[in-house]
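Same chain as my last thread, 168 residues:
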Amino acid sequence: MSTRSEETPALDANRLQDLLDRDAIRHIQIRYAWSLDNQRWDALKEVFLPDAVADFRGERFEGLEAIVAKCASSLEPLDGAQHFNGTHWAQVDGDKAIAGCYFKATKYIADVPGGNTFTVHGKYIDQMVRTPEGWRIAHRLLEPTFVDGNPQVEAAAQSRLSARPGTS
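reply #2:
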């Protein structure tokens, strides 16, 4: 006795490849969040192309080194950060794809007057390229939807960063 409905289309090679591609793209989006929360900046080379571009809340960063530097300077001064993403989608066209997901990114510093957390909610929209090493982000657009919490957390992080020896 078959459990497949007669109306269910067979899983052909093209459909299977589409599912594999969309899963791999989702994995790259998740790898980005994991890399940030664990401050594994080297892992971002598994996420972005070397010449990738990122538009983060009105700031543009060109090249992997600039993207890593921005992520590190934003997150290293914190006492903690956590990035959640979900509702992933991808439209694959050969070796290119447009993909995205919603995110919630929370920054935490203890004892900041007015509250210890600042959270940005929004979505990422990614232009992706298939490489011999797998899918990579060529361009990432961060579109904030709303923010919540204490914006002074970001100011405190920048103060901590500025106070480090060798930074100006």
